[in-house]
Amino acid sequence: MSEAQNKTPEGGGDEIGRTAGGFVIAALLPAFILGVIVPFDNWSLRRFTMVFLIILPFSAAATLAVGLPAFLILRPFRPGHWWSVSLAGFGLGVLVAIAMRLPGPPDPHDFLIIGPLAMLSTLAFWRIWKTALPQTK
Length: 137
Fold this sequence. Notes:
- The protein is an all-alpha fold.
- The chain has helices spanning 3-6, 15-37, 45-74, 82-101, 108-130; strands at 7-8, 13-14.
- Strand 1 (7-8) and strand 2 (13-14) form a beta hairpin.
């Protein structure tokens, strides 16, 4: 695909670049949020950095292992509503929560943490990616 075909004047961006940027943000967001809320007492920049750096590789792995295939499967449908993207993201988060506990049984408490984090990451990715798409009228 030539660069001219990949540009979308109405969307104002390059789809490949927006997609890559969306995946980076989708991986960083859960690590950032958990870095802020996990050190409950005596919050410090050092604790935030430690939690962020510990969680980031797992977040990136989940984003690539679950998010990339989901994107490639759902991309032709061009999801256009925030609620459909939210539901898909929460479902992907539940899938990650189940996979985390294998071979043991899933812990429903994980669904309440990882599901919303995945939903927020999916919404952030979708919002970034959507700006590269041609605007329909």
